[in-house]
């Protein structure tokens, strides 16, 4: 993989060849969203944490670029997931790829957390929550999530004790509602980032 251009965080819209290249290699697939796939980014540059790298072909990167711009506005905000910049790469004559380098959030998104809390509320009491042998896979997953994260996560978020925390909590709800009722809006990517940051354990 060759790095063609770096978009440092301070200057998201225009590529800069003078920016020090963040070196990383692609790890396992974390998931897939509307705007691209997300892989673990294993840092090859000293002092960089593990990353989540969201990527898509450059010709299709309009929304990832917008996400980059929005995250730039919240740089160094401890409540919001960090972005380390963006890179355009190319492999062996393949298409140019736009990579958004994000802080890795090991505990999933705020919407995951809310879904887990809702699951914990809807599921029967603890004694009957254990996965049943032969039960449906999704059901077991839900039970596992609800059991492990449900109220702990909910209390963590609800206990977030300032105005910003309350707002972020509400944004999480908006995302959940959007998933069921509203047309897709890019703003929800930002909300995703908020959620992931809030659900990290540090
Ligand atoms: N910073 C991150 N840390 C860890 N995992 C992540 C991170 N960002 C994304 N992921 C994983 O990648 C998946 C896809 O994320 P992405 O933000 O592209 O889409 P989404 O938010 O799930 O859906 P949509 O784009 O439709 O809103 C997520 O569901 C999650 O599993």
From TrEMBL:
Tell me if ATP-binding is a UniProt keyword of this record: yes
Please give the biological process terms from Gene Ontology that the record holds.
Answer: signal transduction
Superkingdom, according to UniProt?
A: Eukaryota
The record's section on PROSITE patterns has:
PROTEIN_KINASE_ATP, PROTEIN_KINASE_DOM
Q: Which UniProt keywords apply?
A: ATP-binding, Nucleotide-binding
Q: Which residues bind ATP?
A: 54
UniProt xrefs under InterPro entries: Kinase-like_dom_sf (IPR011009), Plant_MAPKKK (IPR052751), Prot_kinase_dom (IPR000719), Protein_kinase_ATP_BS (IPR017441)
MF terms in GO: ATP binding; protein kinase activity
Ranges in coiled-coil conformation: none
Q: Which Gene3D superfamilies match?
A: Transferase(Phosphotransferase) domain 1
Per the database record, which ranges form the Protein kinase domain? 24-202
Task: Give the protein's recorded name.
Answer: Protein kinase domain-containing protein
Tell me the organism: Linum tenue
């Amino acid at each position: 993989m060759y790095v063609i251009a770096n978009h440092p965080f301070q200057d998201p819209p225009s590529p800069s060849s003078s920016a020090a290249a963040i070196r990383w290699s692609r790890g396992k697939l974390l998931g897939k969203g509307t705007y691209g796939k997300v892989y673990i980014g294993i840092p090859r540059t000293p002092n960089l944490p593990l990353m989540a790298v969201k990527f898509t072909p450059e010709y299709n990167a309009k929304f990832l670029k917008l996400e980059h711009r929005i995250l730039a506005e919240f740089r160094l905000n401890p409540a919001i997931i960090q972005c380390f910049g963006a890179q355009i790469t190319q492999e062996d004559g393949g298409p140019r790829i736009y990579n958004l380098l994000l802080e890795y959030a090991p505990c999933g998104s705020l919407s995951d957390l809310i879904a887990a809390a809702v699951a914990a509320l809807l599921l029967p009491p603890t004694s009957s929550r254990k996965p049943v042998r032969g039960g449906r896979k999704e059901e077991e997953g839900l039970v596992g999530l609800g059991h492990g994260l449900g109220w702990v996560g909910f209390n963590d978020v609800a206990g977030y004790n300032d105005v910003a925390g309350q707002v972020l909590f509400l944004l999480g709800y908006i995302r959940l509602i959007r998933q069921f009722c509203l047309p897709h809006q890019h703003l929800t990517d930002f909300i995703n980032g908020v959620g992931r940051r809030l659900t990290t354990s540090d």
